[in-house]
Design brief:
With about 170 residues, the chain is of the alpha+beta class. Helix content is about 25%, strand content about 30%. A 5-stranded mixed sheet has the order 4-1-7-5-6. A two-stranded antiparallel sheet has the order 2-3. Strand 2 and strand 3 form a beta hairpin. The protein is globular, with a radius of gyration of 15 Å. The chain starts with a strand and ends in a 12-residue tail after the last strand. The structure holds magnesium ion.
């Protein structure tokens, strides 16, 4: 049995770096504003994992009204979503991400982003794809006001809650 989940997130840019994206620090003159560290990629992947389980969304699990999540490392959110999947006897089969931004150019950072997402989900890097596109100067993202990320995830059953079918790292 497999289930699919979709995640989307966007955050505004604010002055000053570094940019933290997919858990990777990228040298840039702007960062993403948000209650947590603003990592739109990890937020989109977290929502995709939760979506595949029909287990609500990141805002429900980690409300921004809760001071615990102020400036939080978004690794906490994605790890929690993976842990919930594990408890349900599921694991992420693969994850595909598209990032929409004009700047910075993300291709030099793709491998590190794939590696970090894989590490946080406890899966092989080959199961994680990260792609980046610009908005061709159209709309808010095209004007460089912010960045958006989309993620799709497939969850497969491991048959044992917390089980290890040999595909985990
Ligand atoms: Mg967010």
């Amino acid at each position: 049995m497999a289930r699919i989940g979709l995640g989307y997130d966007s955050h505004r840019f604010a002055a000053g770096g570094p940019l933290v994206l997919a858990g990777v620090r990228i040298d840039h003159d702007r960062h993403l504003a948000g209650h947590s560290d603003g990592d739109a990629v990890l937020h989109a992947v977290t929502d995709a994992v939760l979506g595949a389980m029909a287990a609500g969304d990141i805002g429900e699990l980690f409300p921004d009204s809760d001071p615990r999540w102020r400036g939080a490392d978004s690794a906490v959110f994605i790890r929690r979503a993976a842990e919930l999947a594990d408890q349900r006897g599921c694991r992420v089969g693969n994850c595909d991400v598209t990032i929409l931004t004009e700047l910075p150019m993300l291709s030099p950072h793709r491998q590190r982003m794939r590696g970090r997402i894989a590490e946080l989900l406890g899966i092989a890097i080959e199961a994680v794809s990260v792609k980046a596109k610009t908005a061709e100067s159209m709309g808010a993202i095209g004007r460089g006001e912010g960045l958006a990320a989309m993620a799709i995830v497939m969850l497969t059953r491991t048959d044992q809650p917390g089980g290890d079918d040999g595909n985990r790292q």
